[in-house]
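User: Fold this, then the next.

Assistant: Folding the first:
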Amino acid sequence: KKKLKISGRELVSVPTQVFSLDQLQVLEMSPERESCLRYRMDLLPKEISHLKNLTCLYLDSNNLKKIPAEIGTLSHLERLTLSSNSLSSLPPEMGALQRLHSLHLANNSFTELPAPLCQLRSLTFLDVSDNRIGTIPSSIQHLEKLETLLLLFNSLESLPEDICLLRSLHTLWLGNNHLRSLPASFGELVNLDWGYSYCSCNFEGNPLEKPPPEVCSRGPKEIRDYFLSLRR
């Protein structure tokens, strides 16, 4: 792969020459990945659209407050990391990234799950931990290939019933939210692994009542039986 990692103590902007490298496939501009990189971007240049062959774009730990619409033209993009920025929204054009399978948005300023995310039908990994997300839209059901969904440390008080349609989910982290109940069909997420060595669904830090924590800890079948018993 044709790869470029931007680094250096004296960097004060992104060199414009970067955007003429139209065969570039991997671009790293993350200070946390390069300890000597002091420069933190406030704006991702619109010229990013020139890099038509990008498959991986790493932009963690910058000062980005928004993403330009031009990102939607990167049709080959498979992995995008935007964690630890100051983002509160994503452009609608981002929904066009139909090859994107891994998206990292932890530690930003989202108060809701951005609508364009639910159009990314190839997503298998989504991390939106450490935000202020209060609601999940029912359109999350369109992410049929999603295997890992990380929602820790948000402000969720409930989950939509539609999240139970994500039958490919293996890992769902829900710790440290404000959940008092789970959707009645939650037990249908049978691929969630409640093994002793690794709990793939984490509920710690939630005031759960329906089902109570001791039921949740026993796995999908117990959760399903709990809700069935309520109907009798």
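Now the next one, as you asked:
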Amino acid sequence: MRAELLQLAADLARRREPFVLAMVVRREPYSSAHAGDMAIITADGAYHGWLGGNCTQPTVRREARLALADGKSRLVSLSPDPKSQERPGVTALPMTCHSGGSVEIYLEPMLPPPQLWILGESPCARALARLSEVMGYGVDRAAAPPAAQAPVFAVIATMGENDEEALAAAIAARCPYIAVVASRKRFAEMHEALLARGIPREALDQVHNPAGLDIGARLPEEVALSILAEIVGLRRAQTKSAPVDVPASEIDPVCGMTVEVATARHRATHAGREFFFCNPRCREKFLADPVRFLAA
């Protein structure tokens, strides 16, 4: 199992697909998980591996998606008494498996590096490619946009050679960042030419020109540095403000666990409202005395 998971992780990394690597780092009886058990959770919520029974999976899947959204690792404690497990750096959540026990799981988001799509063979383009690799960014020099799940940042440094076609291609690819290394005069000409070709003004107005932050750059390497600095600033700002995309969930009124609405197998309706449960036992307890659990 471990070898298969490590091979899957390598395959996902090679394809530049985001995923979370999760590992059990501590357990107490009678959890079915053991220290060292591993799982991989992909961006679509697919779950590969073993971290314990079905009681752990919905919570781990949700926390994994949170980790992919904010890019931060986390240590999650699942136990019947989460308050007793609260401490700095630990997310303590309820788990009330029939077997009892508790488990701590470390989740590490594995995010593909940003992709730079560099168009052109100018000195600035070559310098940008070198610096990007130092930063750990993926670099693509092809004429067509790269197929990647990571954000693709396009920089057009063609020095006038097919620059309009390159800019049109970058806009069509919906790159979150497009910069054109050209004079203001030349960019204005490109702007008008592409407007005449039907490119929306709103899209053209999002293009960065002059390219990069204003640091007084003159040499190609300095221009490349200013462009990378602008990309870093944009990426960090997006990370801070990006909404967390996680499935809708509800709290099991019996045990307090988080249950994904879309995948919940155990449901019940009371007083016109639908409730969701982590297992059939919680559902049975609720139906036997709903007033008790709703009052709590």
